[in-house]
TrEMBL record, chain A:
Pfam families: BPD_transp_1 (PF00528). It comes from Roseomonas acroporae. Belongs to the binding-protein-dependent transport system permease family. CysTW subfamily. SUPFAM superfamilies: MetI-like (SSF161098). It is found in: Cell membrane. This is ABC transporter permease subunit.
From TrEMBL, chain B:
The lineage of its organism: Bacteria, Pseudomonadati, Pseudomonadota, Alphaproteobacteria, Acetobacterales. GO terms for cellular component: plasma membrane. This is ABC transporter permease. SUPFAM superfamilies: MetI-like. PANTHER family: INNER MEMBRANE ABC TRANSPORTER PERMEASE PROTEIN YDCU-RELATED-RELATED (PTHR42929), PUTRESCINE TRANSPORT SYSTEM PERMEASE PROTEIN POTH (PTHR42929:SF3). It comes from Roseomonas acroporae.
Length: 270, 288
């Protein structure tokens, strides 16, 4: 059994670690050792197109993660705490749909919808906004909201409603109880949901290829078209940078979550 | 309280209707329309003519999917590749989940994190790694040549095994989680009883552990199968050109051929195909 786990983990990690190691090779071909060098990182730092795409991707991912977390938190709270409400079944089904839709169907459906909206606006106002970063943000927020709702609903299901009820008994309105009791208790789940939304957005190439416009090329789109032609040392270096950034971000998130968990687990006295 | 409920419910509900339900209805509408010359390149199925609504929809796109064996083959290929990927993931994930469930409880979260972490590194980066490993002048060929196992570089990249390798690598974490959840919850007394009654380790595994973990294994299989069936990026970057799976066919139909109604019909057919596995998965989840 042990060897099975070791083998599985080796299979998962070996390719990634080799990719990072070879990013420091100075040779002209990726995955062929040409002596230690940082030249490909330098080449990367001078590549305007990649830097611009990276900056755009980060902004879209942050915006989509924020919007998606807000929407998903509301939806998850509704499912976990509001009990029966008209249309609950349909609400849950629609919320789960982005989780099971293949990317390619999500992308196609959102694009066809956006085209219809644009045509409608064009017909009524004689003008319609172009597709681009904004439409991609809306698409990623929709996907992020579905994942955020799962995280938040799961957290609320494992958390007793007693504290919220106590606040209500002491005279807090539902809004006050939500803002001062539920929301702080949800903080770790919200952080996790935001990170999930951010990562999903930063990793998406299919939905982006559909709903983005000609002026908004994200980093995954650049990476995908480069990889279609094969691997270059520059892409290799880019992969190492992205991994370092992700590792740093995840490490920080883990620290925050750990801190939060400790504060929460601390004895409340009495 | 009413106002509070409305405040919580309305934003996500409106959002979901606008950005999930309506787009899917639009896809269905366009799947029922015929291709046209203008932009967008189709004639809407429902149009206003001389002050009245006229239905001009057609089932022609679906008929074409059924008649042209190219599409049928694409669906069969997708099902096969998704099934193979899910099977490979299950085979690899089972011993991993078993080992994590057998580890001391203190170490389990760390081991689970180790399994999940690669998922967070991004799909494109992992595919870049596989391209580097498998290409003609890549690392694997280098090792094979150095060991004298082959005279000249093998064509590893852009093949079906490369594609399956990439898909298994991408989806393996999905298979470990549900398997681990089932295995960690099993009652060790059952296996101990079987062993006390004289069953060999293999018999205990075959007659007790394996049947107990069946729901988790089924969930793991489906959790990989569902996204794998519509996968586009991995076959495109690692697979052979002839591996025309549904995702790639849809992409070509839309971006290259610009037949939007046909692409929409493919999307509808793909969803119809996924309804059964998704329903099965939900059944399994509810029973837990």
């Amino acid at each position: 059994m042990r060897w099975g786990l070791a083998l599985g983990l080796a299979f998962l990690y070996a390719p990634i670690l080799l990719l990072v190691a070879y990013a420091f090779s100075g040779g002209p071909t990726p995955f062929e050792w040409g002596g230690f060098s940082l030249r490909w990182f330098a080449a990367l730092a001078a590549d305007e197109r990649i830097l611009e795409a990276a900056w755009l991707s980060l902004r879209i991912a942050a915006g989509a993660a924020t919007l998606g977390t807000v929407l998903g938190a509301l939806a998850g709270y509704a499912l976990a705490r509001l009990g029966r409400f008209p249309g609950r079944g349909a609400f849950g089904a629609l919320l789960g749909t982005p989780l099971v839709l293949p990317d390619i169907v999500t992308g196609l459906s959102l694009l066809l919808f956006l085209v219809a909206v644009q045509a409608g606006l064009q017909g009524v106002f004689g003008w319609a906004p172009a597709r681009g970063a904004a439409t991609l943000l809306l698409a990623h927020a929709t996907i992020g909201a579905a994942y955020a709702a799962v995280v938040v609903q799961g957290r609320l299901a494992g958390m007793e409603a007693a504290l919220e009820e106590a606040a209500r008994d002491l005279g807090a309105g539902p809004g006050t109880a939500f803002l001062t009791v539920t929301l702080p208790l949800l903080a770790p789940a919200l952080a996790a949901a935001w990170l999930l939304g951010f990562t999903l957005s930063l990793d998406d190439v299919v939905v982006a290829s559909f709903v983005s416009g000609p002026d908004a090329t994200t980093l995954p789109m650049v990476l995908f078209s480069a990889l279609r032609l094969g691997l270059t040392p520059e892409v290799n270096a880019l992969a190492a940078v992205l991994l370092a950034a992700l590792g740093g971000g995840l490490g920080m998130a883990a620290l925050i979550l750990d801190r939060l968990a400790r504060v929460e687990g601390a004895p409340h006295g009495g | 309280m009413r106002r509070f409920r409305a405040l919580v419910l309305l934003p996500p509900a409106l959002w979901l209707v606008l950005f999930v339900a309506v787009p899917l209805l639009v896809v269905l509408g366009i799947a029922l329309s015929s291709p046209g010359e203008g932009m967008p390149p189709f004639d809407p199925p429902l149009s206003r003519e001389a002050g009245a609504w006229a239905w001009r929809g057609t089932a022609g796109n679906f008929a074409a999917l059924a008649e042209d064996p190219f599409y049928g083959l694409a669906f069969l290929r997708s099902l096969r590749v998704a099934g193979l990927t899910a099977g490979l993931c299950l085979l690899l994930a089972y011993p991993m989940a078993l080992a994590i469930a057998a580890a001391p409880p203190r170490r389990r979260p760390l081991l689970l994190l180790a399994v999940l972490l690669p998922f967070w590194t991004g799909l494109l980066l992992r595919l870049a790694a596989w391209i580097g490993l498998l290409r003609d002048s890549g690392w694997v060929n280098g090792v094979l040549l150095a060991l004298g196992l082959t005279e000249e570089p093998l064509r590893l990249l852009y093949s079906e095994p490369a594609m399956l390798l990439g898909m298994t690598h991408a989806y393996l974490p999905f298979a470990v989680l549900p398997l681990y959840a089932t295995l960690a919850r099993r009652d060790p007394a059952l296996e101990e009883a079987a062993a006390d009654l004289g069953a060999s380790r293999w018999t205990v595994f075959r007659t007790v552990t394996l049947p107990l973990s069946a729901p988790g294994a089924a969930a793991a299989f489906l959790l990989v199968f569902i996204p794998a069936a519509g996968e586009f990026v991995i076959p495109e970057l690692l697979g052979p050109p002839e591996a025309q799976l549904v995702g790639r066919v849809l992409w070509t139909e839309f971006f290259t051929i610009r037949d939007w109604p046909r692409a929409a019909a493919l999307a509808v057919a793909l969803l119809a195909l996924l309804i059964l596995p998704v329903a099965l998965f939900q059944r399994l989840e509810e029973r837990r």
